[in-house]
Amino acid sequence: MQKQDSYDYYVGIDCAQNKHDFAMKNNQDKFLIKKGHFSNTLQGYEKFLNTVLSKCPNKDKILFGMEVTGIYGTNLYERLKSDGYHVVMIFPDSVKNYRDYKRLNKTDKIDSACIAELLLNGDAQIVHVEKNGYTDLKAYIRRRNALKVTCTQETNRFLAKVCLYFPDLLKVFPSGRATLKAIFSIYPTPYSIIEADFDELVSVLQKASKNKFGVDKANELIHAARKSIVVRKSISDGELYNIHSLIDSIDFLESEIRNLEKIIDSKAEEFPTYHVLLTLTGCGKITAATIVAEIGDISRFHKASQIVSLAGLYGDNSKSGSSVNKRGKISKKGSRYLRHAIYMVAEFARRNNPIFKAYFTKKKNGDRTKHILAVNAVANKLCKVIYSLMKNQSTYIIQYRDLAKLSESTQNEFFQNAETDFSAKTRRKKYLYEDEYGELHEFVFKSIKKTLIE
After folding, report:
1. CATH code for the part of the protein at 9-127
2. Which ranges of 296-370 does DSSP label H, i.e. alpha helix?
3. Separation CA 4–CA 301 (nearest Å)
4. Which GO terms describe its molecular function (predicted)?
5. Which of 169, 164, 155 shows the shortest CA–CA distance to 240?
């Protein structure tokens, strides 16, 4: 943020749940109010404004600033905006760095004074507040991510019960959790399987697996039950309740996640940049929607390095003279949601996209200790590709001239894994390749290596 000469007064606000502290400075670097505070109510807000306006009646000459810290400042920000005041949100790191530079303690009053000084000096890092549909899309995605975490936790608790009471089920059903849940809810111990009516067991299997399993799987299940080390014949009513409760919880969460993903896909369709990102190798619908929501309006960025910073993917290096030269980890100071989404694409790209695979191999240089460093490098490079695609509204194409720079073995591996003759009804994701004659070809990957795509 550059120094704003159009303002004569600067008000820094440190927000909390019940009360807000504020400080006010003029353009002569003099504190008019150093230790003010007001309650987080309409009455407190009006009292605060009366105090500020008593120092400067012209609201167009006042700039308000507050930290982006949780939800406590949101209502105040929106109220000031709706009343026609000039207000900005500031990155917390700006305040922390300035406070450390001045060697000040961490208190609400000191923070409000630091914010006022940062506004006056023009050193504050301003947060862009989206006003379009990006906010809605972001809310849906973050709720979906939260439900995914909860669903994973509940699933792990359920699997712990299976391991305790009937561990052999996990060998019989290594995949297909729907069938596993159905069987375990009715037959929670090996003894209950052995004593079960065979026709009824087959019926449960067929219904749960949609006729994928039948008599053969029932016989396999009975054989596994007879070989099991578990000796208990039944479990308590309390534990049985916990099992059924976990299954109901997992089913509900999975249903909510599916509904949210439909909404996310529908909302993301409104943004042209979403369709552009879907052409990128390894970028699925949820990942593309996350990148669009977290970046927002691409026109506010002027270079790719700003995307790198937003994702917190830039290196936090430490270097001093010739005796100390330590490469730090990535900063992780940006959006963790954006960073995770880009990592998902990077993990896919480094395995399947020949361009990124060669770049990853070069950065790793055969050293296992540099694996994370190499993945970070791919993610960093992807930020530049994402910026270019979104900025220019262009399609991602693997081009022959880029492939020609790679080793012959890498080229051969790509052409062996890229299939151009595929069914029009294929559910595999399609990509574009431009040959040496400038002709475009659609292709799908024959095999995906450790896919992390969403």
Report:
1. 3.30.420.10
2. 304-311, 336-352, 354-364
3. 21
4. DNA binding; transposase activity
5. 164
